[in-house]
Amino acid sequence: MILTDIHCHILPGVDDGAPDMMVTKDMLDKMYDEGVRRIIATPHYRVGMFEPSIRSIQSSYLEVKNYARTIGKYGMMVKLGCEYHRDDNMVGNLQAHRRPTMAGSQYVLVEFSSMDSYLKIRSVVYEVVVGGFIPIIAHIERYPSIVEDPGVVADLIGLGALIQINADSMLGMDGRKCHKFCKYLMKREQVHFIGSDAHDLTERPSRLKECAVYVEKKWGWDTARRIFVKNPEKILNIEGEDDQI
């Protein structure tokens, strides 16, 4: 199975992910060895905390992209994205291309605050959709207002949102309650993507391969392929693939 990671922090020196190119190379090598062949790099953008310039992001991205091409026999595909922490200017910034979407598509990886109410999350999803984009809710299992009332996920999907959870959460590494919530969504086919959210090699490494094996064992090959292969291919606009989302 050719794995695609749509959420990781491999660009060196632009957020709290890889601090330098040496760590980035080690991360990419490890991910390649585990079967990851396509990556969307998603550096944080959060006002007052992570505000890397587009120039610095592009420079970092090109260095990573060029290295990734040399890995293994066929190399790795790396595309540029962004994990955008919601703010009042998000839609305008995306429309004006002041922040990248996911691989140049209409998909946007949106992060919320753990303090956000469900109504706030719903409102932002609506604004993003009306603005002409497709919101992917980043690590939805981190938001208490949703975890406490998981039935609302169906409403968010109905509005046009797609759902991403982290591999560590799916593997039960972020607590029992979080794991239970992830399994709840999986049983209802409400998970569209699983990302590594990898930041480094030690504290927050990629466990995407381990998670893919777990998902296949628990929910079957078709489900694993949909989440780790087919749905990401829609973001990457790879032709000749069935519509899975």
UniProtKB/TrEMBL annotation:
Return the InterPro entries for the record. Caps_polysacc_synth_CpsB/CapC (IPR016667), Pol/histidinol_Pase-like (IPR016195)
A GO MF label: protein tyrosine phosphatase activity
Q: What is the top-level taxon of the source organism? A: Bacteria
**Keyword Acetylation attached:** no
Q: What's a Pfam family in this record? A: CpsB_CapC
User: Could you tell me what reaction this enzyme catalyses?
Assistant: O-phospho-L-tyrosyl-[protein] + H2O = L-tyrosyl-[protein] + phosphate
Q: Does the keyword Hydrolase apply?
A: yes
Query: Which EC class, in a word?
Result: hydrolase
Q: Which UniProt keywords apply?
A: Hydrolase, Protein phosphatase
EC number per UniProt? 3.1.3.48
Transmembrane stretches in the record are none
State the similarity comment: Belongs to the metallo-dependent hydrolases superfamily. CpsB/CapC family.
By what name is this protein known? protein-tyrosine-phosphatase
Question: Which organism's genome codes for this protein?
Answer: Dorea longicatena
Its lineage reads: Bacteria, Bacillati, Bacillota, Clostridia, Lachnospirales
